[in-house]
Amino acid sequence: MKRWFCCLSALLLLFCSPSLPARRAAAEESPQYAVADARDVYFYADRDEDSGLFLIPYTYYVKVLSLGDPFCAVEYLTDTPPYKKVTGYCKKSDLTFVDFVPERPYLTMTLSVTYVLPDPPALATGDLSEVTVEYAYYGEFPVGSAKYRYVYGNGKFGYLPADGELVYDLNTDYLQPSSGEADLPEQPQGGGLSGMQIFFLCALCVSVAAIAALVIRGKKAPAPAPEEDF
Known about the structure:
Elements: H1 2-16, H2 19-29, E1 32-35, E2 42-44, E3 52-55, E4 61-66, E5 71-76, E6 86-91, E7 96-98, E8 110-116, E9 130-143, E10 146-153, E11 156-161, H3 195-218
Antiparallel strand pairs: 1-4, 1-7, 2-3, 4-5, 5-6, 8-9, 9-10, 10-11
Helix pairs in contact: 1-3
């Protein structure tokens, strides 16, 4: 009887405990994103407001690497040519955190810049008076009334003078409260148990009670001790 009681107790513990580590693992594997829902959210090279590199394109996201206050460590874009992933910081108060993985987290846009070269010598062959270079666009960087664009090309980052306004599609997924709920299963709050776990727990409790009753009924009263001679 004692052996059955120990086995049932072990099963009871197993049904109570496995869901918590699974939830922690799922939370750790799911990346955290935050959206720039304002037009003045800076991407910083360091935890310093004077180290701004560019403004995150409006309604686009950064991937949060670690939370902090006032700065969070983040990354933007991916190592997919012609783009290169950059890591840096954003102010936590400037970000709007979401509980889903966006389908279009980063703005993928390239800029074509044509450089006009000096007139070639008369003996030169071929047309080399113009060269067009493609740059990966990251974001705007205002300096007073002037604007520059932070770009990547030829293995280097730098700035180009802004020529007019860039037009691109805006994200709206973060404005919908139900966004991402279909992809992420709802987790019970406070470490609650599922219906199946509750069923098994009730069955185990009934079994434990029945075995305990059998043990009590089957236990014989001890025989009275013989009287000692004085």
